[in-house]
Amino acid sequence: MRIVISIVSHNQQELCSRLLRSIDNFLQSNLHEVITVLTENTLTENINKSERFRTYNISNLRHKGFGANHNDAFGSFESDVFFIVNPDIILNENLDLDLIVEQLIRDRFDILSPQIVGASGAIEDYKRANLTFTNLLKRKFFRNNVEKFDWLAGMFLVVNSISFRKLQGFDTDFFMYVEDCDLSMRARKAGMKIGDLEGFSVVHDARRASTKSFKHLRWHITSLLRYWFLK
Questions:
Q1: Count of domains for the chain
Q2: What is residue 207's predicted lDDT score, i.e. its pLDDT?
């Protein structure tokens, strides 16, 4: 099987280089072909490449959003399993791709996520309830972790490529935010299976751009409004 790991850099050279170093250090695979696809949103970016796995570059002439960039990577490189990985992820323990693919196929999952922990070691709320206004308030003020979750946050997703193709990838009418929720909810409606990747965790060194940048906050709010009123 071919595994494609898609990483998108929005002028995040240092984060991407750190992620690729951690992939070189901790990614294990004996049975599968692995390539990394690095999408660079600005032509001036200079990112160190993976030393153990083949790395391909997509350089954008204009900026694209989260979903559009990953869709382009998916469409440009044939895969059986598609990994969607944020630049602010760090691997700090062995991730055995042979076991990951075995779980995906054996248990007939369509979308999986490893356990996501923050830089402090606390488990993050990567499993979330549907994006209703009430649930957003609960998450904002109570940081509630839901046992019965509706969707998986898109920091690190493992997707069966057949399923991703059936869903026609991410909805690019969203821009930078809500694409992951929308993908999971459409998968749910299609009867697909999403869940936890057993026995693996990764570190999310979150940047929380929408709390620091008016532009990102505007994108976030616009995507939420589209999800609530136009879907």
A1: 1
A2: 66
Q: Is 214 exposed, middle or buried (0-12, 13-18, 19+ CB in 10 A)?
A: exposed
- Secondary structure (DSSP) of 104-162: HHHTT-SEEEEEEEETTSPBP--EE----HHHHHHHHHH-PPPSS-SEE-TTEEEEEHH
CATH (domain of 184): 3.90.550.10
In the predicted model, is pLDDT for residue 211 greater than 50?
no
Domain of residue 119: give its range: 2-229
**Hey, how many other C-beta atoms are within 10 angstroms of the C-beta on 5?**
26
* Residue 30 burial (10 A CB sphere; 0-12, 13-18, 19+): exposed
Burial of residue 43 (CB within 10 Å: 0-12, 13-18, 19+) is exposed
> pTM of the entire structure?
0.89
Q: 11 and 46 in contact (C-beta within 8 Å)?
A: no
Dump pLDDT digits (tens) for 168-195.
Answer: 999 998 877 789 999 999 999 999 999 9
Query: Using CA of residue 175, residue 180, residue 181, residue 185, what is the dihedral sign?
Result: positive
- Please say if the pLDDT value at position 144 is more than 70: no
Quick one: tokens of 193?
């299976």
Neighbours of 63 (CB within 10 A): 13
